[in-house]
Design a protein that fits this description.
Elements: H1 4-28, H2 58-62, H3 77-96, H4 102-122, H5 127-148, H6 151-174, H7 181-197, H8 199-222, H9 235-260
Helix pairs in contact: 1-3, 1-4, 3-4, 4-5, 5-6, 5-7, 6-7, 7-8, 7-9, 8-9
Keywords: Cell inner membrane, Cell membrane, Hydrolase, Membrane, Methyltransferase, Multifunctional enzyme, Protease, Transferase, Transmembrane, Transmembrane helix
Protein name: Prepilin leader peptidase/N-methyltransferase
Organism: Quadrisphaera granulorum
């Protein structure tokens, strides 16, 4: 078994590399472009990015945030996404540990970064990311269940996907303008992972999405910056709620039960 610090450090380094790729995903997927071709290039002078200038975070710092060829500014979002993904990978790995389910959680972490940024940018959760994630996550969790001899966890994952996806579908049917189909599809995927953890974590993740969304929307409404018809991307709140449940769901459930005297 790898030492915990080495495991977390390795996950962080992997996160840096994944974060670099996610920058491409976030830019190209909403535009319907291939993430594999053509290679990355400066949008101003169209010069291809050299390999030495494509090292996560470090290259941006050495170039002082500018293109090597035309000196055009390179957005600070690129190194922030890379560093943020590295931190997210490290935190998730520290929480999950050296477990067979870790690849499934790291995969969810990666696509969550991309989906949150895309939803903030264009108010969409692309099917090109969400739908393929169902079979990928199902395979990863099935492998984990078989390796760990945990068929009940796999059953919980499947039920979680049905329950959370069903709740969001009902909300969409009741008010299509308030809950998009993209949110419904994402809910099933998040339910798959939260159901793996347990019913308590599923409830916490589902509840926190609406709580966080309300905490952000209410001040905007009170300040006159948003109204009932204002469209706010809900995907980031769903994702934040799910990861909060992963990180602290068990403690939150325990605190609630103690408060309720159960």
């Amino acid at each position: 078994m790898a030492p915990e610090p080495l495991l977390v450090t390795s996950a962080a380094l992997l996160g840096l590399l994944v974060g670099s790729f996610l920058n491409v995903v976030v830019h190209r997927v909403p535009r319907g472009q291939s993430v594999a071709f053509p290679p990355s290039a400066c949008p101003v002078c169209d010069h291809r990015v050299r390999a030495r200038d494509n090292v996560p975070v470090l290259s941006w710092l050495l170039l002082r945030g500018r293109c090597r060829d035309c000196r055009a500014r390179i957005s600070a979002r690129y190194p922030l996404v890379e560093a943020g993904t590295a931190v997210a990978f490290a935190v998730v790995t520290a929480v999950v540990g050296l477990d067979w389910s870790l690849p499934a959680w790291l995969y969810l972490t990666a696509i969550s970064v991309a989906l949150a940024l895309i939803d903030l940018d264009v108010h969409r959760l692309p099917d090109a990311i969400v739908l393929p994630s169902y079979p990928v996550s199902a395979v990863l969790l099935t492998v984990a269940a078989l390796a760990d001899h945990r068929p009940s966890a796999l059953l919980g994952a499947l039920l979680g996907a049905v329950v959370l996806g069903g709740i969001y579908l009902a909300l969409h049917l009741a008010r299509p303008d308030g809950m998009g189909l993209g949110d419904v599809k994402l809910a099933g995927l998040l339910g798959l992972h939260l159901g793996w953890l347990g019913w308590g974590e599923l409830a916490v993740g589902g509840f926190l999405a609406f709580l966080l969304g309300g905490l952000v929307a209410l001040p905007m409404v009170l300040a006159g910056r948003a109204g009932r018809s204002t469209a706010l991307p809900f995907g980031p709140f769903m994702l934040a709620g799910a990861f909060a449940a992963l990180l602290a769901g068990d403690a939150l459930v325990g605190a609630y039960l103690d408060l309720a005297g159960l």
